Amino acid sequence: MSEASPQPSPSADSTEAQSLLSVLERNRRTFAWKTSGLDEQGLRATTAASAMTLGGLVKHVALVEADWLAVKLAGQEYGAPWDTVDFDADPDWEWRTGALDSPEDVYALWRAAVERSRELVAAVIRERGLDGPASFTWPDGRTPTVRAMLLDMVEEYARHTGHADILREAVDGRVGEGAPPDFTI
Question: Block means of pLDDT (10 residues each) for the chain, length 185 residues?
């Protein structure tokens, strides 16, 4: 006879959720600092053999927020501007147009995506908890948990912040591991 595994108390689950969201917010903040304050030339600059730009990167991460957290986690629609894009015809649309859009538009799109994600993630955690299911299933039949989706977002930000770090240093020399204390998103 085996004993059932004890279930975490709501406060333990809440503490873990707060920790996950804190790490995600720290990564978002660092990403925002690495990509902030640039003009069109800075957002369009490329380096080395890559065609990646900071403007494209910011717009891509806004799409990732919508795709992973709004659609796949919360079960919502993509929303504007994503719902009008034919990604089959233009699979790099966000990268291409992010290098062409005005800095104000690129930054506003990312900030709006983050705000939407914050609201949706809070609601999903309240409704499903961290062990609850996301709103999609992988082709092999597995459904990730809310926790797994949040960890994937942390990974996305960590990877793309590294890209931003390299690009930003090439644009104007900004280096460092974290945003200064007075930096706000």
Answer: 43 78 94 94 86 95 98 97 96 95 97 98 97 96 97 95 93 89 88
Backbone angles phi and psi of 145, in degrees to 5: -85, 165
Q: How far apart are CA 132 and CA 141, in angstroms?
A: 16
CA angle, 42 then 48 then 52, to 5° = 55
- Residue reference for tokens 């930000």: 157
d(CA 162, CA 31): 9
Task: Read off the DSSP letter of residue 49.
Answer: T
Q: How far, in Å, CA of 172 to CA of 42, rounded?
A: 8
Phi first, then psi, for residue 133 (nearest 5°) are -80, 150
